[in-house]
Amino acid sequence: MTFDNITVSQIIILFTIYSFMGWVIEGVYRSISQRQFINAGFLYGPFLPIYGSGAAFIIGLQYFIHPWPLLVQLVVYGIILTLIEYFTGFAFEKIFKLKLWDYSEHKFNIQGRVCLLFSLFWTIMALAFVTFIHPAVLRYVRSLDETLLRILSIVIVIYVFTDFVFSIVSLTAFKNKISYLYSEYFNLSDAEIEKIFSSFKRLRTAYPDLRRYINNNINTGIKNRMSTFLKSIQEKIILNMEGRKPFENEFYDIINDIHTHDEFLKLKLYYHHNSSIYDHVMDVSYFSYRACKFFKLDYRSAARGALLHDFFLYDWRNHDVPDLPAEKNHGIEHPKIALANARKHFMLNEIEEDIIRKHMWPLTLVPPKYKESFIVSFADTYLASKEFVSNFKRNKTIKREKKQADKHKKKNKRRN
Ligand SMILES: [Fe+2]
Ligand SMILES: [Fe+2]
């Protein structure tokens, strides 16, 4: 294959055809995996220029490496296509602060931008492309009348340029709205947040990883604000938690019917991190109550939802209980079990239900709907790790003391 006798219009038409083929491939793949029609790519029109660029690179490379052994050619294709995918992803993240695709859950990925499985897939595609697709398409394009090609390519260039400009404008607007969302998250109502999300429905369906990425960023934002908040009131809250000071009456009024309920009191019998589930949920509840009060959120629902978030009556280390059969994963199952128990004994509002169901997010795939749920989930992780660390330190101290005692004993024995 050579570049001989190929005109600029033919190159433009080829680029368009391959960008269109890419749009079809992605569209079919995404539509099947999401079970709805997806207009793939960030352009409005049916083109994915990244495929056109990939094809251009492959054609160019083929010109130089076609005498090489097939295996070496394949490795070169794989590397080049992976580099294109990596740098396109990188550019979108840097320029638009958006992650359009994310392979971080695939094995052997690099920063979620590329992964081995897809790179292998691109390599096979490249082989099929140079062997069958490109020669046939090139033959067809060459058979077309040059004047027709010229007119077509002018129309396409104008069209794609316009589409590109509008798409970039829309992407920039999206980026600005999202950064507004990050900074103003706590000051916006849930309806306003939903409005921002729904104004970019096409982009979000075209790139399902986008919502997860945005949610992660919001979660990080909340964590940062929480740690500022923590620094200011940590001592106070922890003091109250350690029982040196009683919790406020208001807190008890909010949770009164729950924390005195017979079924709920059974949580005292089950060991959790390094205390009973009862102690753990009381801590998470009080912490969430204080945090939500600070952020002027619905602290009542936060306190109640948090109190019920681990309402499961079994020892999770022992799988053989009716609530949690051996094949089920406690981490994923227990929010559902807790919710079912909570519903059985108490009246729950929507926020409380969301708090219980999503407190293990991102383990449970659907992200929290309410800010209160993010906070409870944060408080749960924060306090559980705090419990874990203090437990670890305590065990270490016990071990050290035991070692010293043993040493002492041995010494005494020797003396005697
Ligand atoms: Fe939990
Ligand atoms: Fe928990």
Structure description:
With 416 residues, the chain is an all-alpha fold. Helix content is 72%, strand content 1%. Strands 1-2 form a two-stranded antiparallel sheet. β1 (109-110) and β2 form a beta hairpin. The longest helix is centred in the last third of the chain and has 45 residues, at 371-415. The protein is elongated. It starts with 7 loop residues before the first helix and ends with a helix. The mean pLDDT is 83. The structure holds fe (ii) ion (2 copies). One fe (ii) ion (FE2) binds next to loops.
Number of helices: 15
Shape: elongated
Distance between the termini: 94 Å
Mean pLDDT: 83
Strand element count? 2
**Fraction of residues in H or I helices:** over 70%
User: What percentage of the residues does DSSP assign to strands (E)?
Assistant: under 5%
| Rg value | 29 Å
Distinct small molecules bound, one entry per kind: fe (ii) ion
* Strand line-up in the sheet with most strands: 1-2
- What low-confidence regions span 5 or more consecutive residues with pLDDT below 50? none
Number of domains in the coordinates? 2
Broad structural category? mainly alpha
Order of helices and strands: HHHEEHHHHHHHHHHHH
Please outline the major beta sheet: 2 strands, antiparallel
